[in-house]
Amino acid sequence: MESNPNTHLSEVLKSYSTSTLQKTYQEACNRRRNEVITFLQKEYGKELAGSPFASGSLAKGTAISLGYDLDVVVPFHHQALGGLEKIFDQVGKSLQRQFQGLSYRRQRVSHRIVFTHKSKPIRIEVVPAMDCVPNGFQATQDLQLWNSAISRPIKTNLQRQVECLRQMDDRKKQIIRLLKGWKIHKNVKVPSYLLELIVYEAFLDDEILLQEKLFDRLLGVLEYIKKEFPRRGFKDWGNKSNDLKVSMTEKEQGEFHSQVVNLLNKLTANEMRVTELF
Q1: Do 208 and 168 form a contact (C-beta atoms < 8 A)?
Q2: Residue 202 CB: number of other CB atoms within 10 A?
Q3: Which of 219, 229, 277 is nearest to 254 (CA)?
Q4: Domains of the chain listed by start with CATH number
Q5: 199-221 mean pLDDT
Q6: pLDDT single digits (tens) 211-257
Q7: What band does 2 get if pLDDT is binned at 50, 70 and 90?
Q8: Closest CA to 86 of 42, 54, 132, 130
Q9: How confident is the model at residue 1 (pLDDT cuts 50, 70, 90)?
Q10: pLDDT digits (tens, 9 = 90+) for 35-55
């Protein structure tokens, strides 16, 4: 059968499905995540405002098999260990000490450690967080994260983020998954949650929402980013006073916009270039 952009993108989405991951691999990922959680609970005990919990794209329903990882949020009491930045640094040091020999990377708001299972990577993302006010987390679920890229705290509600993304229909999530795959392949420096939020905002435009074909919806979202990203902010579902765009440096913002415009130009010039770009 002759290929077209829509059939190609559909096949890409099938390959991105987490159902393609072997059951034994997923079980190994869960075991390693639980191992990390057990260590953190033992290490910090009474400093924690609650039990570490799962978050990220897997909880939201936007995960892809490419770059598969598991997120663990670790909520600390207000001003534990001397404050949020110190919490972030201390958790990173603890993970490096406990899991010596593993690949470790300090990231924007998390620490990544990488185990292996039959030569496949098991990526665990540990997100240190702090209660915004004394004894507030259990009542509100509000937390502060430390953004190491811009050296400032960010207040959010990760549970609310998850709930909002879970409610999004699959026609929109398809575009999120495609752009996440593109982000990984092309090493695009944009936070995944900001990408999810941008796609959500784009689909508020009926012209994009009503597009039946997958390729047309993708183009519509790329056009939206080209036009809107440089001139507006994107409010966090977990805290409407928080503009997620400022979690990126100005250089990162400019590079992301240029990469999107470049992708859009290539696809509009020749739609079958989708086979090399996705």
Answers
A1: no
A2: 21
A3: 229
A4: 5-13+164-277 (1.10.1410), 19-158 (3.30.460.90)
A5: 93
A6: 999 999 999 999 999 999 999 999 998 898 889 998 899 999 999 99
A7: low
A8: 130
A9: very low
A10: 999 999 999 999 999 999 988
Percent of the chain residues topping a pLDDT of 70: 99
Q: What is the 3-state secondary structure (H, E, C) of the chain?
A: CCCCHHHHHHHHHHHHCHHHCCHHHHHHHHHHHHHHHHHHHHHHHHHECCCCEEEHHHHHCCCCCCCCEEEEEEEECCCHHHCHHHHHHHHHHHHHHHCCCCEEEECCCCEEEEEEECCEEEEEEEEEEEECCCCCHHHHCCEEEEECCCCEEEEECHHHHHHHHHCCCHHHHHHHHHHHHHHHHHCCCCCHHHHHHHHHHHCCCHHHHCCCCHHHHHHHHHHHHHHHHHHCCCEECCEEEEEHHHHCCHHHHHHHHHHHHHHHHHHHHCHHHHHHHC
